[in-house]
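Narrative of accomplishments. A recurring question from our advisory board has been how the design workflow behaves on a single, concrete structure rather than in aggregate. To address it, we present the structure tokens for one chain from the evaluation set, followed by the sequence designed for it. No filtering or post-editing was applied between the two.
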């Protein structure tokens, strides 16, 4: 008899949950492998699209099952803080080209309006429409229309119908849906991500047509959507998968100047690495950037990239990297990426007050587009607080002996090098 069969109805089956989580991890790794194979030219576009569509749908089904188990666990522990239960939500961003999906949090909880029937019925209807729209966008549009007829301000129905419309080629109508969601609930993160995806696609289209002005404008707008997404307390699952899918990476490189991007591309082509950033990659990148800076010494994009090359796994020169970021801030005192990188290096050196002051300078600025590579500001703040507690509880006043290649958030050794 299976573990599921032995579990009485209404109780959580830990074995089944573990199996689902293992399958989720396998599928997410498979999506990553698929991206690498396609990028390397080992998989043609047709096979890539078919496999990715299959993986994304399967991932959505597994994640929904995990969400149901966790919802049941929450109901099984009524003593827990209900405010916390409301925040424990599953948002998974699988942003495929042909079947991009975002597995929503608990349905209809924010600005949702009401639908005839109880909450469970509404959640079931939204979940049914969502799964249908993943596989058949046109039918998903119709499914959501029935909900919106009864509850025109349901932000989840508007968001996912909008995404289905975009995938069905009705881009303007889909964009109108997402704009309506933002008017109803500016803090609903799901809509922000879909708007960012649509904007990066528009940027790519403008780039192919040679429209540099529209390209940059669209990438900047996409970055603003991601900034708003992070300001609305998204789940860690959402953030992790967003990073895995590379949307932030696309925006970061989309906003770099052409010569700096070309250096990154040349370094990737010549380093022979398929697993992220290694010292060979950084050496090639740094050599190319020296040529750019020789002719454009105030290029902030080239200076930032050069600073990153000085923080490699085998050779780390924090003083030189600090000098490069200082040159950036002399040109642009509000350059968020330079401030973030300086905070990262200060944190790694245990200069906690300096790191905090640098992060304070980021307040009110757009989120650094290099956060996915350097380290998120919020994680650096957590690391500073944790380090202060550790120092306060230490029985010795000896200086810290941590190396510059520490793996704490904010380490100057490119803590998320694989994400680059």
């Amino acid at each position: 008899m299976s573990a599921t069969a032995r579990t009485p109805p209404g109780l959580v089956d830990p074995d089944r949950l573990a199996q689902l989580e293992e399958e989720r991890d396998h599928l997410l790794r498979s999506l990553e492998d698929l991206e690498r194979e396609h990028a390397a030219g080992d998989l043609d576009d047709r096979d890539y699209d078919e496999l990715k569509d299959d993986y994304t749908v399967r991932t959505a089904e597994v994640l929904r099952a995990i969400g149901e188990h966790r919802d049941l666990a929450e109901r099984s522990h009524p003593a827990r803080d209900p405010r916390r239960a409301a925040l424990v939500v599953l948002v998974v961003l699988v942003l495929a080209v042909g079947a991009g999906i975002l597995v929503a949090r608990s349905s209809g909880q924010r600005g949702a309006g009401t639908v005839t029937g109880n909450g469970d019925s509404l959640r079931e209807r939204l979940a049914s429409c969502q799964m249908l729209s993943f596989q058949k966008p046109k039918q998903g549009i119709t499914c959501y229309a029935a909900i919106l007829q009864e509850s025109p301000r349901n932000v989840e129905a508007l968001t996912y119908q909008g995404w289905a419309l975009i995938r069905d080629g009705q881009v303007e109508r889909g964009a109108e849906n997402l704009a309506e969601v933002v008017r109803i609930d500016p803090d609903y993160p799901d809509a922000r991500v879909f708007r960012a995806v649509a904007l990066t696609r528009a940027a790519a289209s403008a780039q192919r047509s040679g429209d540099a002005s529209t390209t940059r404008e669209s990438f900047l707008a996409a970055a603003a959507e991601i900034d708003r997404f992070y300001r609305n307390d998204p789940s860690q699952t959402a953030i992790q998968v967003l990073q895995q899918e590379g949307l932030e990476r696309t925006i970061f490189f989309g906003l770099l100047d052409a010569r700096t991007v070309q250096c990154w591309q040349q370094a990737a082509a010549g380093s022979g690495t398929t697993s992220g950033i290694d010292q060979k990659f950084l050496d090639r990148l740094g050599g190319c950037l020296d040529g750019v800076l020789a002719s454009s010494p105030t290029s902030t994009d080239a200076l930032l990239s050069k600073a990153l090359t000085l923080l490699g796994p085998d050779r780390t020169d924090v003083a030189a990297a600090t000098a490069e970021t200082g040159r950036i801030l002399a040109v642009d005192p509000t350059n968020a990426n330079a401030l973030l990188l300086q905070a990262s290096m200060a944190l790694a050196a245990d200069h906690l007050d300096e790191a905090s002051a640098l992060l304070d300078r980021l307040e009110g600025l757009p989120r650094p587009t290099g956060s996915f590579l350097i380290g998120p500001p919020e994680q650096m703040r957590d690391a500073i607080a944790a380090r202060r507690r550790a120092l306060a509880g230490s029985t010795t006043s000896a200086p810290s002996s941590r190396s510059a290649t520490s793996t704490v958030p904010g380490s100057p050794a490119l803590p998320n090098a694989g994400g680059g």
